[in-house]
Amino acid sequence: MTDTPVIGVLALQGDVREHLIALASADALARPVRRPEELAGVDGLVIPGGESTTMSKLAVLFGMMEPLRERVRAGMPVYGTCAGMIMLADKILDPRSGQETVGGIDMIVRRNAFGRQNESFEASVTVRGIEEEKGGPVEGVFIRAPWVESVGASVEVLAEHRGHVVAVRQKNALATSFHPELTGDHRVHAFFVEMVRAVL
User: Fold this and answer.
1) Residue 180 φ/ψ, nearest 5 degrees
2) Which of 8, 44, 135, 187 could cross-link 77 (Cys pair, CB 3.0–4.6 Å)?
3) SS3 sequence, the chain?
4) Cα–chain-centroid distance for residue 45?
5) CA-CA distance, 120 to 132, in Å (whole number)?
6) Would you say residue 35 has pLDDT above 80?
7) Are strands 105-110 and 89-92 parallel, antiparallel or unpaired?
8) Alpha-carbon gap, residue 146 to 137, rounded angstroms
9) Residues paired with 91 in a beta bridge
């Protein structure tokens, strides 16, 4: 299909600019999304890394939480990285007081599972559906990254690192513990753009 998908990046908090660049490089029209009316104008959405508790509170404050839940329930393709993965989890193992999620992936995640900010690291990750294409493993940056404790039967595990699940997909929802947008390797974004294009 030749249609160019319009993909938003939730721009409440986090590394928005890097995702916009990665999406544009993967032949999508990328735009920041802060309000419900902007959300209504996109075909898919990236929820970036950042601080999941802050992101949750801002989504509620800006009137975005319920519209996000409705669009995800309705099948809008969505991709969450790091804090975005936490936002897409149906359950958080250790939520902060008042922390909410959008949901959409039948998984339980553990916040900051790979350690604190000063324990951040970069690693090569073999991601199912991407590893057989040119370029080998995906380079991922792990910054206070979560991991997936458990998944439901309908969730496909796409990648593991150090024995923990770090990339998953359930229907039109994709999530990674790591930040591919910080490495210049845009293959995960290209994979997501194809997910969006498939439902246009």
Assistant:
1) -75, -20
2) 44
3) CCCCCEEEEECCCCCHHHHHHHHHHCCCEEEEECCHHHHCCCCEEEECCCCHHHHHHHHHHCCCHHHHHHHHHCCCCEEEECHHHHHHEEEECCCCCCCCCCCCEEEEEECCCCCCHHHCEEEEECCCCCCCCCCCCEEEEECCCCEEEEECCCCEEEEEECCEEEEEEECCEEEECCEHHHCCCCHHHHHHHHHHHCCC
4) 9
5) 27
6) yes
7) parallel
8) 20
9) 108
- Does the pLDDT of residue 79 top 70, yes or no? yes
Q: Which amino acid is at 141?
A: V
Give catalytic residues, as residue numbers. Answer: 82, 179, 181
Structure-token pair, residue 7 = 């993909």
Residue with tokens 């950042």: 50
Please, which pLDDT band fits residue 1 given cuts at 50, 70 and 90? very low
